[in-house]
Amino acid sequence: MKPSQPRLVLAPPLPNGAEKDKNFLESSFFQIPNQHLPTPEQVRALSTDLSTSPQPKPVIFTDPDIFVKFGRYVSVGEAQCLWMVRQALGDKVPVPEVFGWRVDDEGYVFIYMELIQGETLLDRWEHLTSLDKEGLRDHLSQILADLRQLKQNCDQYIGSLNRDKLPDYVFQSLRQAGPFPSIREFNDWFSSLPQARLAGSQRYTDPYRHLLPDDGDIKFTHGDLHRGNIMVSSTSPPRILAIVDWGQAGWYPDYWEYCKALYTCWYEDEWRQDWIDRVLEPRFEESQVFSEYTMAIGAV
């Protein structure tokens, strides 16, 4: 089933990302009187791997249910993203409701959000019927079509939601990764990375640059769309409850979502072989170039 194409939706202005202590008082959590979010100290006390992992596992509180994603590699931008998607698109693009964030003196960011009671699509995949998979495919296709209707509320650029460097994992080792004022400038920069450490005399004419289109659109992109980040119900027929883990999301060229979806799974995987092309518009040439560049810079 081909997803319907809704009208463009203007992205709302973001909450102030410079705040270190933010509560979304309009969220469902604060509709119950005298409720308070756990402190960073309480989150740390319940962590099982804080002292051993640079990216500690999220902590779950019950009564009320709260899911806390935290660490030095967590960003306020992810909380802003959850807020923006929910504000702009509501239930059309299901995401966890965000209740607030904290930033402590050690630079750890704590994002407090709704706990999604379900299973990942990855965990449930082998137990689904073909009809179940088709239904989820149609639902996911529509969700992504709605997501791609978000429009920037300022001059166009490629970068993070708060107009900073691109948060994509591919670029995490690079100090400079935008923002860029146009797709052309991003493509020029991306194509230059494999030769960045070569002396001028060693550089060559890039045989792939012309395959990256400069005349596409800038789209809001999840950037890490794999089955482990798609939460589905345990009921039958299954339905998508939420898309999670928006830490790499931002404004990218319209080919980026497809390239990253391929990047996140093995080549022989059924999800890659049979389903991604039925959820997202295939961008075959761009994905080949993407693979060449990411391998060349060691982002594998």
Automatic annotation (TrEMBL):
Key word Transferase present: yes
Transmembrane regions listed in the UniProt entry: none
Pfam family, one: APH
Gene3D superfamilies the record matches: 3.90.1200.10
GO molecular function: transferase activity
Domain called Aminoglycoside phosphotransferase: residue spans: 88-276
Keywords associated with the record: Transferase
Annotated CDD domains: APH_ChoK_like
Protein name from the UniProt record: Phosphotransferase enzyme family protein
Lineage, uppermost ranks: Eukaryota, Fungi, Dikarya, Ascomycota, Pezizomycotina
